UniProtKB/TrEMBL annotation:
SUPFAM superfamilies: UDP-Glycosyltransferase/glycogen phosphorylase (SSF53756)
Name this protein carries in UniProt: Fucosyltransferase
Composition-biased stretches (Polar residues): 57-67
Organism encoding this protein: Seminavis robusta
Keyword Transferase annotated: yes
Taxonomic classification: Eukaryota, Sar, Stramenopiles, Ochrophyta, Bacillariophyta
Compartment(s) of residence: Golgi apparatus, Golgi stack membrane
GO CC term (a single one): Golgi cisterna membrane
Fucosyltransferase C-terminal domain sequence ranges: 270-405
Stated family: Belongs to the glycosyltransferase 10 family.
EC numbers on record: 2.4.1.-
Gene3D superfamilies: Glycosyl transferase family 10, C-terminal domain
């Protein structure tokens, strides 16, 4: 605050004896100004007000003196003169204060936002299994990774269908256990009001058992394209592709890069024969191959001409070991992996396990196999004309360099486009193209 004495030492004390009423009012306003302003700007304003007050005092004194010398002039009535002077003083003060920069003040508080309605949450999308659980898990982790997995439909939803909504999905693995619904798909559709995706694997399909009014909720992935009215809800997917995603990521590399195949130990220079369905053409092929190389088998399919009869694996291996055959194959130079039948679209995990195990596959099945795998990466055994395959097997046995080239140098896949077209169930393979096509077929958008 300014020093009051510095402003007053040359002036008389404030009193009505010396100052007029108007001048005294000006002095009072000056003191209030000193108290209210404590910055350089307030001092400037204070000096301006002081100057105006001094001028007004001098004017008042001159006015008083003029009244004494000009007796003839009629004076202004005191009450009017005081009013005029007070108005002038107030106007001058207003002008002075208006010329000052605005005082700094705290910013006004931000307006409180008006309450809004909470965002509408997207209904939870739930996923149920029924039948083959292992294949269902593959679909859950790839095609439906954005879904909440509930589990077994039979165990959790036998009576009330878990109050399924239209955006819920049931994965039905054909030939697997599904309680009362395994052979009664109409009952299944009655209990479950969401969408059902049949993972047919090796079957001919099962949507033909469904009533027409439920067909709009039925979809199929499998090897066969049924000529039905609901064909637009069916997509051809090789069973082999689902089996590919059952493999650990390091084993998948054997398919993507032949150099990453496990090194064959060669401890058993023989052919591994792993089958439980002893179809005639496969048994006959095993018999012919055993004339060139020893043939080791496991499970129930044996041949009378096999002289080794060696056990390849522990006794406890069963059907669940189909995805673990590669652990057996790693010790063998060749693997007999013939399909149960030759039918368009039917390619199972058998040849896949041979590649991953590090042996050369001896394959029979649909010629669509050449669309997937390089023709020089396996031996195609034509049961109608087996001699070319048997001769190729004999040449490989006589030429170790040729065998190594075929095993580790030849690409496994027929072309780079194979991954995107057939195997792209996950985003890291082919950009997830196959997964996106399946979701589009089912009219299920991805979560944002």
């Amino acid at each position: 605050m300014g020093d009051d004495r510095g402003f007053q030492k040359h002036e008389p004390a404030l009193s009505l004896d010396y100052f007029s009423y108007d001048a005294l009012l000006a002095e009072i306003r000056l003191r209030r100004a000193r108290e209210d302003f404590n910055t350089q700007r307030s001092l400037t304003a204070e000096g301006s007000l002081r100057s105006k007050a001094n001028k007004f005092t001098k004017f008042n004194q001159n006015k008083q003196q003029g009244l004494k010398t000009d007796a003839k002039k009629e004076p202004t009535p005191p009450h009017l003169e005081a009013t005029m002077k007070l108005n002038k003083l107030l106007n001058d003060n207003l002008v002075a204060v208006a010329s000052l920069p605005p005082a700094t003040s705290s910013p006004a508080p931000a307006p409180t936002p008006s309450p809004t309605e909470p965002p509408t949450e997207e209904p939870a999308k739930r996923l149920f299994y029924c039948g083959y659980q292992d294949i269902g898990e593959v679909a859950a982790k790839t095609i439906f990774a954005d879904y909440q997995v509930i589990g077994s439909f039979v165990q959790k939803c036998r009576t009330n269908g878990c109050h399924a909504k239209t955006n819920d999905v049931l994965l039905f693995g054909m030939h697997g256990r599904c309680g009362d619904f395994k052979d009664n798909h109409s009952l299944l559709m009655e209990r479950f009001q969401g969408k059902v995706l049949f993972l047919n694997g090796e079957s001919f399909g099962n949507a033909n058992q469904i009533s027409p009014e439920s067909s709009d909720r039925i979809y199929q992935l499998g090897p066969y394209m049924e000529q039905q009215s609901w064909q637009k809800h069916t997509m051809h997917v090789y069973f082999l592709v689902l089996a590919f995603y059952k493999l650990p990521s390091d084993k998948r590399q054997a398919i993507l890069d032949p150099a990453k195949k496990p090194r064959n130990t060669g401890t058993k220079p023989a052919v591994a024969y792993f089958a439980s369905n002893c179809v005639d053409f496969r048994q006959q092929a095993a018999t012919e191959i055993a004339k060139i190389l020893p043939l080791h088998y496991v499970k129930g399919c044996r041949i009378s001409s096999n002289g080794t009869m060696a056990e390849m694996v522990p006794k406890n291996i069963g059907m669940s070991g189909a995805y673990a055959n590669d652990d057996i194959y790693k010790d063998y130079k060749y693997c007999l992996v013939m399909e149960n039948t030759n039918y368009p679209g039917y390619i199972t995990e058998k040849i896949l396990n041979a590649y991953v195990g590090g042996c050369i596959p001896i394959y029979y099945g649909t010629t669509e196999i050449f669309d997937l795998f390089h023709k020089d990466s396996f031996i195609f055994y034509n049961i109608s004309d087996p001699q070319p395959a048997l001769q190729q097997l004999q040449r490989l046995e006589e030429n170790a360099m040729e065998y190594m080239r075929m095993l580790y140098k030849t690409p496994v896949l027929a072309s780079p486009e194979v991954l995107e077209k057939y195997f792209s169930l996950s985003d890291d393979i082919g950009g997830g193209s196959l997964k996106k096509r399946i979701r589009e077929m089912m009219d299920i958008p991805f979560s944002s």
